[in-house]
Amino acid sequence: MKIALKCSLLSLALLSWANAWGQIPALANCTRSANLLACIDAQGNTYSVNTVGSTIYLRGFEKDGNRYWAQTNSRFGQLTFFTGLASDGEAWVGYTRRVGWTTINRFSSSGGSSAKFTCSRITGC
């Protein structure tokens, strides 16, 4: 779950920052169209990010866990809610709130994981 969640949060960050930073080859090899970002990283994990209005659809494959996962994000102003499901039955929910260049993130999963963390575009997470 932690890898899938990190990939999905990284996907959101990449999608949000792609215009400013462009493709980041050290992290993943990505192909982008108008509303789709598809990536594969050095470990063989794959994921895609598709935007439709204010909704973001993420799908991926976690190589270490050998499982597929999907996540849907719904944005309401500076607040984004997300829910996800993996092929092994694990589910997760959470939110991300933007305050300036900082995001406040919270999630919990059916596997017992939960966390709250803050990220900044300048200092990272």
Provide a descriptive summary of the structure in words:
The protein has 125 residues and is α+β, with helices and mostly antiparallel strands. It has one helix spanning 2-21, and strands at 29-32, 36-40, 46-52, 55-62, 67-76, 79-86, 91-99, 102-109, 114-120. The protein has a single domain, classed as Lipocalin (Beta Barrel). Strands 1-2-3-4-5-6-7-8-9 form a 9-stranded antiparallel beta sheet, with helices on one face. The model is unreliable at 13-23 (pLDDT under 50).
Radius of gyration: 14 Å
Class by SSE composition: alpha+beta
Given as residue ranges, the uncertain stretches (5+ residues, pLDDT < 50) are 13-23
Task: Please give the CATH class.
Answer: Mainly Beta
Helix content bin? 10-25%
User: With helices defined by DSSP (H or I, 4 residues minimum), what is the helix count?
Assistant: 1
Profile the largest sheet. Answer: 9 strands, antiparallel
The termini sit apart by 18 Å
- Strand tally: 9
Cα shape: globular
Strand content: over 45%
Keywords: Signal
Signal peptide: 1-22
Protein name: Glutamine synthetase
Organism: Pseudomonas jessenii
